[in-house]
Amino acid sequence: EVLLMESGGAVVQPGGSLRLSCAASGFIFEDYTMHWVRQRPGKGLECISLISWDGNITRYTDSVKGRFTISRDNTRNFVYLQMNNLRPDDTALYYCSKGPGGDYWGQGALVTVSS
Amino acid sequence: QSVLTQPPSVSAAPGQRVTISCSGSNANIGSNYVSWYQQFPGTAPKLLIYDNDKRPSGISDRFSGSKSRALATSATLAITGLQTGDEADYYCATWDSSLSIPWVFGGGTKLTVL
Lengths: 115, 114
Fold this sequence. Notes:
The complex is a heterodimer of chains A (115) and B (114). Chain A is an all-beta fold and 115 residues long. Chain A contains no helices and 10 strands. Chain A has strands at 3-7, 11-12, 18-25, 34-39, 45-51, 58-60, 68-73, 78-83, 92-98, 109-113. In chain A, the strands form 2 sheets. Chain A has a 6-stranded mixed sheet with strand order 2-10-9-4-5-6, with no helix packed on it. In chain A, strands 1-3-8-7 form a 4-stranded antiparallel sheet, with no helix packed on it. In chain A, a hairpin with a 6-residue loop joins strand 5 (45-51) and strand 6 (58-60). Chain A starts with a strand and ends with a strand. Chain B has 114 residues and is an all-beta fold. In chain B, 0% of the residues lie in helices and 39% in strands. Chain B is built from no helices and 9 strands. Chain B has strands at 9-12, 18-23, 35-39, 46-49, 63-67, 74-79, 89-95, 103-105, 109-113. In chain B, strands 1, 3, 4, 7, 8 and 9 form a 6-stranded mixed sheet that branches. In chain B, strands 2-6-5 form a 3-stranded antiparallel sheet, with no helix packed on it. The termini of chain B are far apart. The interface between A and B is medium-sized, with 24 and 25 residues.
């Protein structure tokens, strides 16, 4: 059974940092691209970052470039999202999703950026 | 502003058929497969359709996807025999290599079963 489980969500002040983790199991993790998708309150889905199977290719949406870093550990089956200089509009539920087409999703990690 | 355009809402009565459209461009839908997701409040999205018209194991055949032959930049999700349990948000998604983040979603459509 494929499982994705995010952790690390929290309430953080503007300008703060947070690292989200996503533990993957039930598939050959090192074979697949992984995504981070966020959903702001009451809004739609937005893929904000992805990482290739080997970690050599990473992509970011413009609004998080230079602030967020995606990485993965294929020995431990984890994908991470380091989020720095957080802003109130980063408040969202953050999902990790198995690539390339998002056939499996975690339950999400809630990030609230507020003073 | 989503790259893919969906109607914000659709509605129909139980037992009826409803369609949800997803409109894009040659750079995305016109060149790539389309997926569809169903999301209930407070839960993660669930894959309903992939590669335009394929259903993952366990997805009811009441759900079907298609990509227009006449207008190759448009895709449609159809749900037949509507049930109250189908009331959810539906999202289309595809790839667009011209963008900084190539996996893109529509804005979502809220389905109301009257």
